[in-house]
Structures are given as C-alpha cells and as structure tokens.
C-alpha cells in the first residue's frame, strides 16, 4: 500500500469540475423565482439611514440563521449530498450553527444593548454583492453564480460577520462552522483548479478581521 503522504487532495475528489458547477446551476434554476425576493429580505435589516440598533441586527442575524437551515437542506443535502458522502454531516453542523446564532442573539438582547457599529453591516452588504461578481470575473458562469440564501459559501461567510457586533460571551461559538466550511470550500476550489479558492481565503480573512476589530454592541451603550 502506498504511504499516506503520497496522496494529494485530488485523490480524494469524488466528482468532476463539470458535476460540481452543475449543482449551482440546478440550485439557481430550481429557485429562480425566489432569488431576488430572498436577497431583498435578507439584506433589508442591514439597509437604513437610521442608527443600526441591536434589535435590527438581531433580526437580520435571525434571517441569516434561517437561510443557513434552508441552504443546509436544499443545497448541502439534496445537491452536494448526491456527489459527496460527508455532506449530511456538514448539513447537521450548519443546522447546529443556525441554532447557535439564535442562542447568541437571545443572550445579546438580554444584555439590553443600545446601538451597533454599522461597519459590520456594510461588510455583509459588500459580501452579498461583491462576492458573486468577483466569482464571475474569475470565470464562473452567470447561471452558476453564488447567491446569498441559496448557496452555502456566501451564506456562511455572511454569518461569520455576525459575532462582530454581539456583546455575548458566547459569540465565539459562531466561528468554527463557517471557518471549517470556508476551508473545505477553498480546498475544493483549489483542487478544481478554480482561482476562487483565493477569493474564499481572502473573504475569510476579512471577516475574521472584522470580528476582532469591530466594536461589539455592549461597549457602545451610553455613548
């Protein structure tokens, strides 16, 4: 038997690049009528000229948690699960992540925060709009585009920003699943010879920077 160090990531790939990109095309085709209403619903809590309150931040985060559950079933299980045996386990992890978001939201609201630093909200908007466009510039077809609320990469990236403005001591529990999925996705894209793996790693780095540098809501109370 060959030694384990002689294997590469491509030896563990269970599908062809064409089969992988076809999944995104099928997902968008199946839910094409819900794409724009869903995007508007998910982004609405972050867009306003008024101060971004903790209540509105919590509402937007709860919508993203619901989007995680939707993506876990419709894409990770029903589509990726057909070509990768580990996807049901990932789906359970994403569902747990969604429940943790709701738990951390509740803990934050019990602390009676007043307002939220808006910079994290702008990062979510930038990800929702810029990430799909960057993918197209790197060679992805328009009918295979990443879409917030329909595909896991972008949806989980946006949830990675949620801890940036939460005062809860439990907010760090929201990091492992998006990070694990992001690294898995980057490895998959690298194996498929897609330049998008660099985009994924860059987006992960920016989101982590936001979590560490953007001031949580609890420290903004009373200013």
Automatic annotation (TrEMBL):
TM spans, by residue? 30-48, 60-78, 90-110, 122-139, 173-191, 197-214
**Coiled coil regions in record:** none
* Keywords attached to this entry: Membrane, Transmembrane, Transmembrane helix
Which superkingdom is the protein from?
Bacteria
Q: Does the keyword Manganese apply?
A: no
Signal peptide boundaries: none
User: What's the protein name?
Assistant: MFS transporter permease
